Amino acid sequence: MPAFATIADIEARFPSELLLVAANEETGLRDDVRIGHGLDDASTEIRAILAARYSAADLAALDENSLAVVKVYCIDIAFYRIALSFSRSTDNIKERYDQAIKRLEAIASGKGALTTTNSGAGPVEDGSDVGQNEVILEAPERVFTRARLGRI
Question: Per its UniProt entry, which superkingdom is the organism in (predicted)?
């Protein structure tokens, strides 16, 4: 599965910090391979957290707004992982990482939601569509009704 963010996304958000944090120790040039690994690891971590609530198909079908939200979290998580791999983490980078994880865990626990391009969970027996967070309730027919008891 592709990463939720790209090197260009991180560079657009943190142009000067990325070069400082991700410079190769020997050459001083930005190490795009290690940045790519950080993005892949961040995306894997996001999928693992959101798996508590969303299937892989749901995550693959996120709409534009939800993808933008997840991209921000992915950038913050990846930036932290990149900084760790270069031993250049700061309190600010760690704080952004912690906040991203907390927000993703809140979404996974139902305190927020991501929307998908899927129309719903699919048809149920009566032919209606059920939304992602809708409850389906089936119960047996009532035994004691006013009609059966003769309107007491």
Answer: Bacteria
